[in-house]
Amino acid sequence: MAKRWQKVELNYLKKHGESKSLEELADRFHTDVETVEAKLRELRPEALGAVARAEEKALEEFEEGIEKLYQEKWEQALEILDTLAEEAQIPELSARARQYADLARRRMEGGDDEDPYLEAVMAKNREEWGRALEICNRGGRAKKQSRYAYLAAAVLTKKGDLEGGAEYLAKAIELEPRNRAYARRDPDFADLRDDEEHADLLAS
Fold first, then answer.
1. What percent of the chain has pLDDT over 90?
2. How far is CA 128 from CA 65, 72, 131, 157, in A?
3. What is the Cα–Cα distance from 195 to 198, expressed in whole angstroms?
4. Running DSSP on this structure, what letter comes out for residue 49?
5. How far apart are alpha carbons 161 and 157 in whole angstroms?
6. Calpha distance 199→202 (Å, rounded)
7. Alpha-helix residue ranges (DSSP H) falling in 116-177
8. pLDDT at 167 over 70
9. Could you give the CA distance from residue 155 to residue 28 in angstroms, rounded to a whole number?
10. Is the per-residue pLDDT at 33 higher than 60?
11. Band (114; pLDDT cuts 50, 70, 90)
């Protein structure tokens, strides 16, 4: 059924179409991204252009942050990636930036030079699920370190194992309560958020 737009909603869309992401607008209006995009195109075609430019800029900054990471310029990488994690309008990009920022922060704090977290993140991003999980669980990492538990939860959820994903996410939240808020925005947990059986895990 097509959405019937209220006047107040249209006014909000005109005012905030350039500053809010499509996902944020869709959530506000209880509809999908495609519906918002179509209405934006109808009302203010230039607004979509502004959103596209902002997303392109964020992607360029993300690439710069990753480049600094591989150059072992930890402080510069952290500054770029932390900012993206908080401000990027693309949820998936925000989640990835936070993962890499965590790695840069640990290196700045004198973490293990052989820290395999980056390898696990890259394996996940290549959809090498088994490899990513093996790294996360080696030596009981996912039981002791929140970032590995969170990453394992994301991998299992993406694989379609919601029970396993929920179990690891619960552990990640136990180890670091802020992971609950992160998971609410992380697109990797979309299926878990939509699953009524695990709704309490991500509730406020």
1. 25
2. 23, 25, 6, 14
3. 6
4. H
5. 5
6. 6
7. 117-125, 129-137, 141-144, 146-159, 162-175
8. yes
9. 29
10. yes
11. low
State whether the Cα torsion 142-146-148-149 is positive or negative. positive
What is the rounded distance in angstroms from the CA atom of residue 166 to the CA atom of residue 191?
A: 11
Tell me the residue type at 132: A
Q: Poorest-confidence range of 38-47, 74-83, 190-199?
A: 38-47
Statement: residue 92 has pLDDT above 80: no
Distances 34 to 3, 25, 29, 41 between C-alpha atoms, Å: 11, 11, 12, 11
What is the overall mean pLDDT for the chain?
A: 83
Go through 109-148 and write b for each residue having 16 or more CB atoms within 10 A of its CB, e for each that does not: eeeeeeebbbebbebbeeeeeebbbebbbeeebbeebbbb
Q: How many angstroms separate the CA atoms of 114 and 21, rounded?
A: 37
Q: How many Cα atoms occupy the beta-carbon half-sphere of 191 within 13 Å? A: 15
Helix and strand element counts for the chain (H, E): 13, 0
CA distance 188 to 92: 8
